[in-house]
Structure formats: C-alpha cells, structure tokens
Fold:
Amino acid sequence: MDKAHILPANASGLRFRDDPVHEEPAVTLDAFLTQPNATAVRVEAGEDARRLIPHFDRLALVEVDFPRFRDGRGYSSAKILREAGYTGELRAAGDVLVDQMLFMRRVGFDSFVPNAPVDEAVLAATLARYDFVYQPAADAAVPVWKLRHG
Amino acid sequence: MYKYDKYDQAIVDARVEEFRDQAARRIAGALTEDQFKPLRLKNGLYLQLHAYMLRVAIPYGTLDSRQMRMLGHIARKYDRGYGHFTTRQNLQYNWIKLEEAADILADLASVEMHAIQTSGESIRNVSSDQYAGAAADEIADPRPWAELIRQATTFHPEFSYLPRKFKIAVTAAEEDRAAIRLHDIGLKLVRNGAGELGFEVYIGGGMGRTPFVAPLIRPFLPAEHLFSYCEAALRVWNRWARRDNIHKQRIKILVHDLGQEEFTRQVEEEWQAILPNQSDVPMVEFDRIAAYFVDPPFEAGAPDEIDRSDPDFALWVDQNVVAHKAPGYAIVNISLKPIGGIPGDASAEQIELMADLAERYSFDELRVTHAQNIVLPHVRKADLYALWQTLSENGLAEANLDLISDIIACPGLDYCSLANARSIPIAQKLSQRFGDDRQREIGELKLKISGCINACGHHHAGHIGILGVDRKGTENYQLLLGGSGAEDASLGKITGPGFDEDGIVDAVEKATQVYLDRREEGERFLDTYRRVGMEPFKEAIYG
Ligand code: SF4
Structure:
C-alpha cells in the first residue's frame, strides 16, 4: 500500500502526496468564498463542502476538521469533493487517530495533521491490512464485485 | 444459502487480525478506553454490568448447521454454556473476556461468520423475513438483496462513523414479518405495473425514546439502484443530523425535523449526485449471489397429510407449524420461550441439537426470528412427528408461537448496564401466569418487554408492551397497548401510571380479561383494542 511522507511544515503531520507542500495558510470557508485570491480553505464539520465546487481551479488545499474522531461528517465532505473532481490536497486535521486513517484514505484524504502523533508502524500495518474491499470509494481499490466478474 | 468465496473470507480473516491488534493495543495501554470503545463496538463487544457481551452477526437470520454448532461450541468454551438469541436475529454471549474475544472471532471466521457492525454507530446487521425462501406469500426471496446489502455496507468508508446506529430490513411478502416500518430503512420488494422488480422504500422508522413508524419515501425504486439510494439517504443523514444530543441523532429525527417532503427532496437530489459514481452493485453480481438461494431439492410428491392422533403433537402443529410454498413441506418454529424460562436463551446442548435437527430434517438450514425463536424452514410433513418428539424430549416443543407467553424481552437489568428495570423476571412471571390453556383461549397476543426507554425489547410494537422505568430508585413498569410491528404497524399507547413487579402482571391479566369479555368473532386482542379504544382497558386496570 501507499507510503506516507512526514509533513515538513508540521512535525506531527503525514502526507501521501509527492507535490510540494502548499505554503499558504487555510482560511475559513466564509473567508475563502469572499477572498478571490485564497487558495487554501478549512472546512468545519457541519459546513457544506459542496460550496467549494465552483472554485476548484484556485483551490490547492482543503483541510477538513474532525472535532472528535467519532464525528464522521468529514468523511462525507471528503468524498463529495473527490466525486466532484477535486484533485488538490485533502487534509484531515484534529482528533484523527490511526484506526480511522484507512477509511479516511479511502474517501480521499491524502494528508493528516492529527492532534497527537501516530505510531507509523501501526499506521503502515493498518493501511496494508485489507487486500479487498466491498465498495468503490475515492481511492484506487477495486470492489470485489468487479474482481469477481473480471 | 450464501457461501463465502476467497474475497469474503479474506475480509473476515483480516478483521479478526485487526481486532486482535486493537485489543492488544488496548491491553498494552496504547489505546485509551475512550478510543477503543467505538472500535470494539464496531465488532459487537459491549462492556456490560458483569462482563463483556459479544454479539455475533447472523445475517438476515439465516445459518446452516455447521455455523449453529459453532455457536454452541463457543457458548461452552468461552461463555457459561448459553447463547441468547436477539430481536435483531443475532446471538449474544453474556460472559466474555476481552482477552479471548479475538479467538472467538477466529472460531467464527472458520465457519464464515463474524461480529462486524453488530453494534456501535454503524450500519447494523441487515434483517429480513424469517420465512424467506419458504413462505407461500412472497414474490421472490428477499435474502439475495439482504446479502447484497450486507456486503455493500461492510466497512463502508464513508458511513462508519455515523451519528447513531442504522438498521435496514428487507421483506418480499405481503405479511410483514420483519417490522420494516420500524427500521431506519425498510425495504419491501414489489413489482410495478410493467412486472419489473423494485422496492418500496420506507425511511425514518424506529423505536427507542422517540418512536416513529417510517413514512414511504419512494413507492418504487428500481431494484438495481437499491444500494445507491441507500447511500443517498445515509449521506443526507450523515451530513445533516444533529450531533449535539445522542437522543436526537437517529435518522427518524431528521426525517421528522425536515418533514417527509423536504427529506425526500434532499435524498432524491443526493441520489442524482451519487448515481454517476456507479456504486450500485451490478446485476451480474446480484445473479451470482441469488444462485446461492435457489430452492433446495424438495421431494416431488412428498405426502401432504399429517397424522394428528397424538393430541399434544396436534396442538404443536396448530400453533408452531406454518404453511410452506412446496407441497408436502412445512415451516417449523422452535419456541425458545419455555414457560417460566428466559426468552431467547438456549443452552449449548440445545443449540447443537437444533443444528443436528436442521441437518437431518431441514436441508441443513436454520433461521433466527426477531421474536427470538428458531425456525427450521423446510421440513417434510412426514417428518414432523419424529422431529416434534425429539424437540419434546429436549424442552424445545413449547406450543406457544405468537401467544402471550411467546414474549420478546430484552436482557434488562440482569445484564444490561443501561437498564432501569429487570425484564426477564417479568417475562417469567407472565408466562407462568398465562402458560396454561388460558393463553390458547386468548389467542394471538404479542407481548414485548424493554428494560429501559431504548426499546431493545420492542415494547412500542407489542399488542401489549411493557417498559421498565426507574421511579425514585425503584423498578417500575409502564403498560402500553395497541402497538404492532407488522404490516399494520402502529405504536402502543401508555395506559397510565406504572406498576410494581406484581402489579404489572395483574394489569396485563385485567387487560386480557377486557378483551375476552368484549371480543367479537375473529378478533385478536389488537383488533378489539383498536375497535373499543383505550377507555374500557383503563377502567378495568385502574378503576
Ligand atoms: S432496552 Fe434498555 S435495558 Fe433493555 S437491553 Fe436495551 S438498553 Fe438494555
């Protein structure tokens, strides 16, 4: 499976992208929508990520906040952005724990800034554990129904 | 029935190892209990009053004798020799050690079973009609659809940290034996005017503290879009449900707050957005699954007569045996409600015996019912007597299906850490009070008991429901009348002030007396209640 790079900008971050780290700080959704030059945005849980869809051409980083790891709204935000064609960095930030990162990768997150550092050996094992998945998502994994029928 | 291929097996095996690793990290202190809790709950492991409880998934209530035997083996090896069949067609063990949980999962995986998503804020085990594939009144077997849903919802990456639990039920018969309108999503397989298969989609039902009967959100969903439509509903809910109050986070509250029309509009809009993802399971995969559910080789010309000369046997046939679609065959209900017993409990020996009987008499198949009984779906009528004799010798031939002693009861304060009151002793007392000929005189009467407002015992849906509450530190029981989980779904109404343990048994007796006094030809308790209303019952109970 894929391998994480340590995020240089933030000592406790992880990044699954090869492009250079985006330098601009993320602004709030409201600020982003009113500042035509902004290129990075932070989406809180409960905000409508669809509002970003008309602005993908200037958008390089979306940071989705997880106030509590049990709050799963950010998974839908990520999936919606990827479905709509967003290809920039999609970052999960906040109460992000190692046991949630596999599903986060599957819905399209490709960087993480967790509140507490994660054990990279555990993360590597977690991300490599499942060889098969039952449903298509925003990652490259092929659902088993496709494998079954060639 | 469905058999795993290498993919299904690999996924379940990986989950065993994942859980083993998570439990080890918890025991080593690398995970806090707070962090571990949702992980173990996603695997059916609850911390209860006295020990861990493990809930094993029995997808849509169907299992074979090899699997049933394993459930008996686990009861003996890791528990105290018992298993408890639940209202979600699952099985619970009440005395489990965390250190052994992964070994149990490995034993389960060896017979194509698991405990995935049997609790926690996830998409739960899908439930269905316990007579599926055998019932005379279904338009097609609903179980291939249920299996399709099982796979598509297993480890769904977007919907694994939901606002609350989420329950789906599927039926294909006119008679609703799966209480679909009391589910988050209830699906009824239907044909449209052109003869095509599709679903009536009900969304937003549920019990608990704020019960709702689900409204019809879509009268006809083409069958091939089943999963994408469920995803659309899940996404609308996951995004916009309240997250600030655990009691207001189920989808039923969102449907209620938005209103049926606006909720429907949002789901339809989301569905249009989701359709291009092509997340629907293709029909060639459905056909692969459906091939596992073809009829067993019923014997042509199997004799249709039953020798009723033994009156005890005849009584059991009349009460517990149901019409089968194939001539010469019958559906057998094995009651797990012996008079004075614990509803839904079975010993390891009884579980193994039922496995043997399924192998011998029912094409190797068993079902678990939401009423906490076991079904042998395909029994030759010619074998009924021999089967009944063996059941009788082992305390499994109680002839009380759908009678007042066929009680649904949650574990209550004897096991459950959320309980306000005990359920089991009430069930035992009631079944002793009525478990003679009186219950036959009363006829069909579905009595359901919950030990707290969470309603695991479905008290809202009982013709008579009992709810345990805490009144100034003592156990108190409220009485409800008029609920139904069937196709005529309705919610029971509270009669008035509650009762103590003996008082509730007396109150039920008074209610049944009103029914006996006032019933008209052919009326069940529920029908009489609906006709005469609450007042006469109130008068008799409190007057
Ligand atoms: S209804 Fe309450 S007491 Fe009964 S099992 Fe559910 S949570 Fe426990």
User: Anything to note?
Assistant: The helical segments of chain A are 29-34, 73-83, 101-106, 120-128, 144-148. The longest helix of chain A spans residues 73-83.
